[in-house]
Amino acid sequence: MALKILEGCINCDMCEPECPNTAISMGEKVYEINPDLCTECVGFYDNPTCISVCPIDVIITDPDRVEDKDTLYQKFQKLVHEDKI
Predict the structure, then answer these.
(1) Which residues form the 4Fe-4S ferredoxin-type domain (predicted)?
(2) pLDDT of residue 85
(3) Helix residue ranges, H only, 1-85
């Protein structure tokens, strides 16, 4: 699954610099996660770093973007390959 930031986000700026895929950016009101770039840190870390640094626990798995670990790893490999081009 990709991750999602809920509207309760306080824009503390903790999550954005932690994302190895640069999937997090400022939206209209709160930070947002681009589901096409989010691998839940698969390929980089054991757990999503944005969730671990969020002080108010507003980052959840997105129920609309269900992806298993293999799919997330394939996305990671594609993103890493595109980065090298």
Answers:
(1) 1-29, 31-64
(2) 52
(3) 49-53, 69-84
Q: Cβ distance 9 to 58 under 8 Å? A: yes
φ, ψ for residue 61, nearest 5 deg:
-75, 140
Does pLDDT of 11 surpass 80?
yes
Count CB neighbours of 59 within 10 A: 21
Averaged pLDDT of the chain: 94
Run of H or E residues at 5: strand 3-5
Domains defined along the chain, listed by start: 3-84 (3.30.70.20)
d(CA 27, CA 68): 26
19: Cβ–Cβ under 8 A, 6 or more apart, which residues? 33, 38, 49, 50
